[in-house]
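To close the chapter, one final illustration. This time we ask the reader to focus less on the individual chains and more on the assembly as a whole: which components sit near each other, and how the overall shape emerges from the parts.
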Amino acid sequence: MPRNGLFIEYEYCTGCHACEVACKQEHNFSDGMCGIRVDELVTAGPDKVHVDFIPITTRFCDLCAERTAKGEQPACVKHCQAICMAYGPVTELVKAMEDKPRSLIFAPK
Amino acid sequence: MAKGNEKIVNSTMWSAGCGSHGGCGCEIYVQDGKVVRVEGDKNHPFNMGRLCPKGLAIPQYMYHPDRVTHPLKRVGERGEGKWQRITWDEALDTIEKKFKDIREKHGAESVIFCQGTGRDIGGPITFLMYAYGSPNWVQVGLAGHACYTPRLGAMFATQGHYSVLDASQFLEKRYDSPEWTPPKYIILWAQNPAAGCFDGFYGHWIVDCMKRGSKLIVIDPCHNWFTSRAEVHLQNRPGTDGAIALGMLNVIINEGIYDKEFVDKWCYGFDELKERVQEYPPEKVEKITWVPKELLIQAARLYAGNKPSAIQWGEPVDAMPAGTVVAQAINQLWAITGNIDNPGGNVIARNSHGVTTYPFSSAELTKLYGEDLVKKLNEKRIGANDYPMIKNFRGWVQPDVLIEQMETGKPYEVKAAWIQTSNIIGGQAADPRRHYNAMKKLDFVVVVDLFQNPTSMALADIFLPATTFCEKESFRSWWQPLGVTVKAVDGVDESRSDWEINLEMAKRLATNPIKYNTVRELIDDRLKDGNTNFEKLKAKGCWEYPPEGHFTRPYYRYEKGLLRGDGQPGFDTPTGKVELYSTRYEEWGLDPLPYYEEPKESPAATPELYKKYPLILTTGRRSPVFFHSEHRMIPWLRELDPDPKFEINDKTAEELGVSNGEWAYIENQRGKVKMKAKITPTAHPKVITAPHGWWLPETEGKEPNLFSTWEYNINNLTSMGNQGKSGFGGTDYRSSLCRITKIKD
Ligand code: SF4
Ligand code: SF4
Ligand code: SF4
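The assembled structure is written out below.
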């Protein structure tokens, strides 16, 4: 079985938090539990301040096993407002990374 | 994805619940009569499967333990927080009797009908109000009516219709539509679109356009995600947007880089505008705005030199006394560059299929209710006689004049209020204490809402429980597409939809019989203009675009004679052209040409005050997880933005000895509130930004605490009564002065 993961092109992640609430709703998580968290990354360059957002999966992410078993997209991927997330075999995601410089891959257990 | 035996209901979101200016298509998953999940509808062209956090938190909102789901009556003093559950019959009987008494003794105009922001509520509320006979439809507290209406008024005067950035939203195939092309440059003017669906525009469409090649010019006092990705960032002093627009017009006109053909053929008053903008050379604009003139010139050249380009603008444009003037100048930018109703420009936006969900404009009001009634209503409508633009553009009351009238009782007394899904004191009111004092004097107040909030707690005599969109039928034609909201489950406990409540109330109060037996009959009657009905739309997946060639479908309608009542080519203005010199403004006693007006309080306008309060305060910073003053009680959302935070530049904070995460006071001559410091280099060293609408539902609701609204609501630092000359546009939500002080103890 190929190993699956999440690909996030964080260049386009606006920090809108939809992925987090989608995950909570899907799993009915309470009390701060969530499969993903989005952090703000502010870096001041010589002439410009940059704001980026970095989504990180947590140990509660199960890659939406129930949904993906039925061929559905994970809840976060479906609802990502910037359409900057994808789900698939890690080997495929690595290929996608070739042309998308500011991106991340997570392959939680 | 349906799990187990879940049933899926497709619907349109435009109601209490997610907040929604939007119109996202959704799938509501229902099990055993309960909503278990709300997901985006992939087939809906508006959001294409996506939803924002507020939409995704609906189940927690609907089944929240604090949601009010039975009618209540106040049993203690106002504000004591003593409520008793009553039946719908008792609630409606009480209101009917009171409202009839008041109408008999004081006239229908002495009851005001108050709503919050523009979602489907305007339909039910105006329907009830006109049935009762009152002309006083109002967003109480919204000083200068400073939310979209000033921009709409300026566009109405200038070009006869409204325009929005073209992100292909008017075409069902969206980004694949062959006739669409992305804007080459997008000017993001005073807005963070990622935080929501402002003015019916799904914010992430901007990101979609960026992926398709659109470049950005951003006008914002702070750095943010969009400025990081912009080719040009004009980091202006808050409140100086008018000078930026005039400076850009100056560059574009004097360098001759405007669209000469369009201006010759379709614009009126170019020479007068040309003369006026000579007063705003880039050097002068730099002094006013803090924006280096090189950047201003660069932005103007990029925008004018790359067609099509488009402007997306935010509420700060309205939130200055000269709001209708600033908006006029920005409108002129897309007019003289010919970026109007063209693919990838500022496309003309009309209610889908010509269907009126509620009477936004005086023209629609007349269409729905007839000229005689409108004339009669105008005689008593508060503010209509003070301001020709208020009288002639829309059916609204002027909100500042209302409060003054409530204080003086002149020319007549206001006796009662029907407040529907609007948290006046804890939300939009500028100077909320003054609003609180004025409204406390009312004889009778009905609140229709889903949760208790500072306003209902302080004022309500009767509380009627409303529903979310999942529990109601409604319809939407705000731009496009035409859609229906489909009821997925019955109202939780005894709650009822706004439409049901208001139709029932209207039947009891109407002076002429109401022709509708059911809400469905009413909706179908309104949908007739679109040659369709509720069931037909529902069967289509709950949305539909108008057919090819329809006057509510782009592009270039001014060439085709699709904009004017007489069917002639041109624009729906007195001269038939885009009026750079506005004859409507002139008729309304306003300057027909744009000019710059300094904010009322600023380093330039009030240097003495500035010594005492050396930082500029701009409020209303949007959170992506809240809609205005809503959602603070929803755990999934609150967890992501737990405290009210002001943003302060790292160097400024260091000078003041304020550390990150520290609670501090933001203070000016009008008051002080507490917020947590977020220290960030994204903030301008001279500017403090603060979010609005904060109250803490977890704290004591009864007086004097009122859910801590006096402690955390930034509007306690704002003022009312300084609306612009047109009556629209106003106050200091977006630019006043303040200082930050440490909390000692
Ligand atoms: S894949 Fe599923 S479980 Fe993992 S973060 Fe996304 S929504 Fe949560
Ligand atoms: S939903 Fe998408 S854009 Fe929004 S925070 Fe998550 S990854 Fe970023
Ligand atoms: S984007 Fe707007 S309409 Fe869509 S879910 Fe969010 S608030 Fe509701």
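The longest strand of chain B covers residues 671-679. The domain at 149-351+565-587 of chain B is CATH 3.40.228.10 (Dimethylsulfoxide Reductase; domain 2). With these observations in hand, you are ready for the problems at the end of the chapter.
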